[in-house]
Amino acid sequence: MIKAIIIDDIEQARTTLKKDLQVYTPDVEIIGEANGVVEGARLLKKTLPDILFLDIQMQDGSGFDLLDILNEINFKIIFITASDAHAIKAFRYAAIDYLLKPVDPDELVAALKKYREHKLNENENYKLLNHTLKNHSKPHERLALHTQDKIHIVNIQDILRCESNVNYTEFFFVGGKKLLVTRTLKDFEDLLADQGFYRVHQSHLVNTKYIKEFVKTDGGYLIMNEGGSVPVSSRKRPEVIKMLEEL
Description:
The protein is 34% helix and 32% strand. The chain is an alpha/beta fold. The protein has two domains: 2-134, Response regulator (Rossmann fold, 3-Layer(aba) Sandwich), CATH 3.40.50.2300; 142-246, CATH 2.40.50.1020. A five-stranded parallel β-sheet has the order 2-1-3-6-7. Helix 2 (37-46) packs across helix 3 (63-69) and helix 4 packs antiparallel against helix 6 (123-134). The chain is elongated, with a radius of gyration of 21 Å.
């Protein structure tokens, strides 16, 4: 059985989540619940779950306040939040799972399925999340990338380019390092749009700071500072030329 704790200051929300877990994920056992940060911290000091379902906004503080109290996180956290654009973007940079209220049973099942398949230590992800949220006025500097066997925390400005590989994305870094990541290129296009990355082709996303030149012949392609070329789609060609003129 998967042991779970729910921390949410709304009793009805805890009750509904417990019922959904019983119906849709019968291998999950609720071993405790709390109605806020203080009570939740006490509970976690004496009871260690496999998964913590953690509300973001509670009367005595936030779920992130609880992260500050914990010295080490040895369990999976699935955050539960209302629509909070800043928090959601932070989750995505840190590759942290979250569920939007009201919780959709299909998304709940998907989150538990992911946990069963990839029981990875996400402690570095939570540190990255906490850092990102505390420094929300600064540009995001790091990104969590899930490969098949590890979670890699990388510096965004070390990313040279990204290439689509069916439902995966291959990352190419300054210095020649590569990572095959278990998310689509579209996910990263949205996430890195304000970090100087540009989708120049259906299969290619580039960090514009590493573009060396644009070759107009042979359909058009980019030469990158670290070597190698990236094709530019005919549809994107006018946009790419305009983008380069404005750099």
